[in-house]
Design goal:
heterodimer; A: alpha+beta; five-stranded mixed sheet; 3 helices; 28% helix; globular; B: alpha+beta; Heat Shock Protein 90; 2 domains; two-stranded antiparallel ribbon; 7 strands; 60% helix; 17% strand
């Protein structure tokens, strides 16, 4: 069976502003696994019901990484709402990630 | 700009596990590589500790052989020469002179054998313990080199485990060798102190002072050896020099590793 290139999870609530993320990871490497978990947790805590995460494994879909100018993994791209934001790393620094995603004010 | 800084930060903090190239995706397993490196260092340290143990055992065996076998044979030779000297008549003057010179040579050899045996394995370390041995080493160092050497301790009659004592003694020996060879010092001091739960050893001198480069050099085998001995006892070793003011070597070892 052909492996699915992308997994898509949608928790958007009708009427709310939906955040669309694209997370580029590489297999089950340590930082990629942490980034997946950290992003899911952040979204549940701060965007419950109004987020959409698209995870791209660059080992399976390198073209998507090139298309999005992804240089390293993990890389998180906030697609919507505009403007686009890129965050690098395993997303373990919650405050910094929330600030970058404009979910809390910059310090 | 902000994005570049964030990328650099992610790379520096090892939060990146893949680099996406035009044709290849390079997976960087920094943490695993670091763990492997640390394991490999631990193995090297364990090996070094084992080698030091074997070296000490070998030294003890050689010292015993030298003292018991060679020392005994030389003593017998000395007695034989004395017997010949007694039998020689005044008319056999050249034989008497030869016997006397041979006897003097054998005496020197006996002293040399004793000195080598003590250097290989200081018997006093087994008999009297670390503190007395270091006292005696300071006196011997002063006698050999003419460099004034003071020994200070707050340990009284405390006794330590054999392996730990040997390591401390060897560190002091190596440090004093460095003082006599390189420091151009007129005074040296050894201190062995109990501070809280640690044993602190310091050896300092008033010489020219070791340079930072030399203290950290990978070619300074004596320093590496001392550091390995301290590490094998879960301790630390620091070496600081100040131009014209001398060098201080400080070793800290948990007391729990010395008992």
């Amino acid at each position: 069976m052909k492996a699915r290139k992308r997994e898509r999870r949608t928790y958007a609530k009708p009427g709310g502003e939906t955040y669309v993320f694209r997370l580029f990871v590489v297999g089950n490497e340590s930082n990629s696994t942490q980034a997946r978990g950290n992003l899911a947790r952040l979204c549940e805590e701060h965007l419950k019901g109004r987020y959409q995460i698209e995870t791209v494994d660059v080992l399976k879909d390198a073209a998507a990484a090139h298309k999005n100018n992804v240089l390293v993994t993990p890389t998180l791209i906030l697609i919507k709402p505009f403007p686009k934001v890129t965050v690098f790393g395993n997303l373990s620094d919650t405050r910094q990630v929330l600030a970058a995603l404009r979910l809390i004010g910059d310090e | 700009m902000k994005e570049t800084e964030a990328l650099v930060r992610a790379l520096k903090t090892h939060q990146v596990d893949g680099i996406v190239g035009e044709r290849h995706i390079m997976i960087c397993r920094m943490k695993k590589v670091e763990e492997k490196l640390e394991n490999s260092r631990d193995q090297v340290r364990a090996l070094a500790a084992r080698l030091q143990f074997l070296r000490e055992s070998e030294r003890t065996a050689v010292a015993r052989e030298l003292h018991d076998e060679f020392g005994q044979a030389l003593t017998s030779l000395q007695l034989g020469l004395s017997w010949i000297a007694c039998k020689v008549t005044p008319q056999q003057q050249p034989v008497q002179a030869k016997t006397r010179s041979l006897s003097a040579l054998v005496t020197t050899m006996i002293q040399s054998v004793k000195r080598i045996a003590v250097e290989l394995r200081p018997g006093v370390l087994d008999e009297l313990g670390l503190v007395k041995t270091l006292q005696s080493e300071a006196r011997a160092f002063e006698g050999h080199t003419g460099i004034r050497c003071r020994f200070q301790t707050n340990l009284g009659k405390a006794t330590f485990d054999r392996a730990g004592s040997v390591s401390i003694f060897r560190i002091v020996q190596a440090a004093l060798t460095n003082v006599s060879r390189h420091a151009q010092a007129s005074r040296a001091a050894i201190a062995l102190m109990k501070r809280n739960n640690d044993l602190m050893l310091t050896v300092n001198d008033n010489g020219k002072g070791i340079t930072k480069k030399l203290a950290q050099s990978h070619n300074s085998l004596g320093i590496i050896g001392m550091r390995e001995r301290a590490l094998a006892l879960d301790g630390t070793l620091t070496l600081r020099g100040s131009t014209g003011k001398g060098t201080t070597l400080a070793v800290r070892i948990p007391l729990s590793r010395m008992r």
